[in-house]
Design brief:
Helix content: 10-25%
Structural class: alpha+beta
Shape: globular
CATH class: Alpha Beta
Oligomer: single chain
Largest sheet: 10 strands, antiparallel
CATH superfamily: Anthranilate synthase
CATH topology: Anthranilate synthase
Order of helices and strands: EEEEEEHEHEEEEHEEEHEHEEEEH
Strand content: 35-45%
Radius of gyration: 19 Å
Length: 351
């Protein structure tokens, strides 16, 4: 099967499909992306088991397709070979409880300011929920999100419906965001708890600090409520000029992972997560998208995502923890985020 990458940016009426017959290029580090062009599939953390790949083959071709599914989607298989999805040895709630206790203990001791705790579940999907149908349904139901479906033999097949920009723009200017805090959407005039406001402030502070040595003409919006499907988040927008648009890999090395998916301080919290979270995040909370000519970047954080196989899918979700966090509230937040993906597997259910 050819490797492919299909995406639709927020509010677009068409999608873009790229495919190639060659194997993707394995990239050793984010810095090695400097000067590269192609479609990036990056994990939460690069290692021997979770590699960064670039689709940039000589046989690659890109087409633009309508979202009515009438043509051009024949290259997407109806199913993929079954993924080995091992059953959990304990209940999902018990696993989360143990992880939460371990993470929160460090926050209570002020070892870290913030930690993001992730979890995953395995869900059965409807027989007619093909990758093509799931992608088109995601485009229909989540117009505000970046929707992507990609496959390589090395990564397997993933679907993403992300509300979070990592880096978008070109040599004329770039855009990123601080996105944190989660509630059920109830309109633009929602009241945000002190915990949610503090969580979002940590992300905004981190982005501001990261941008200072790498960018000029930095502008920052005030935090505001933004909608992502049935959920709401606090968001701050940043626009800027990069000092060197040919070294996007260097920028991404400094930037990824942000506290929205990792914690504060970055290096120490990432190491803690890798050694203490009972989950291999794989490509969840990494990023994906396009690197093009003249510094073009269309990169989004891999959130609200699933790893697809013939009859089952593994869904991922996470939430930011502070010392004020309450376990049941955080569990329910992950349940709400998982619902974004669950809906796409049940084609007979209305949104």
């Amino acid at each position: 099967m050819n490797s492919f990458f299909i995406y639709r940016e927020p509010f677009e009426k068409v999608c873009h499909c790229y495919s190639q017959s060659e194997k993707p290029t394995a990239i050793t580090s984010l810095t090695a992306l400097n000067g590269c062009k192609g479609f990036v599939i990056a994990p939460f953390h690069c290692d021997d088991n979770n590699k960064l790949f670039l689709l940039n083959g000589q046989t690659g071709s890109t087409t633009t397709l309508p979202l009515d599914g009438s043509k051009g989607f024949e290259a997407i298989p109806d199913w993929q070979d079954e993924i080995i999805l091992a059953g959990e040895t304990a209940s999902l709630r018990e696993i989360y409880h143990k992880d939460f206790f371990r993470f929160h203990k460090e926050l209570a001791c002020n070892t870290f300011r913030k930690l993001v705790l992730a979890r995953s579940i395995v869900e059965q999907k409807d027989e007619n929920a093909s990758p093509r149908n799931i992608f088109l349904r995601a485009c229909e139901k989540y117009p505000r999100s970046y929707i992507a479906l990609f496959y390589t033999e090395e990564t397997g097949m993933w679907l993403v419906a992300s509300p979070e920009i990592l880096l978008c723009g070109d040599a004329n200017g770039y855009h990123t965001m601080a996105l944190a805090g989660t509630m059920k959407y109830e309109g633009k005039d929602m009241h945000w708890s002190t915990k949610n406001q503090e969580e979002q402030k940590l992300v905004a502070d981190y982005i501001r600090t990261c941008l200072q040595p790498l960018a000029t003409e930095i502008t920052e919006s005030k935090p505001y409520t933004t909608r992502a499907a049935h959920l709401a988040h606090l968001r701050t927008d940043f626009t800027f000029q990069l000092k060197d648009t040919q070294r996007l890999g260097t920028f991404l090395t400094a930037f990824h992972p942000t506290p929205a998916v990792c914690g504060m301080p970055k290096k120490e919290t990432q190491e803690f997560i890798l050694h203490n979270e009972q989950l291999n995040r794989s490509y969840y909370s990494g990023f994906s998208g396009l690197l093009g000519d003249n510094g073009v970047a269309k990169l989004y954080v891999t959130l609200r995502c699933m790893h697809l196989s013939r009859s089952t899918c593994r869904l991922y979700a996470g939430g930011g923890l502070l010392k004020e966090s309450i376990e049941e509230n955080e569990w329910q937040e992950t349940e709400s985020k998982l619902d974004t993906m669950r809906l796409l597997l049940r084609l007979d259910k209305a949104y």
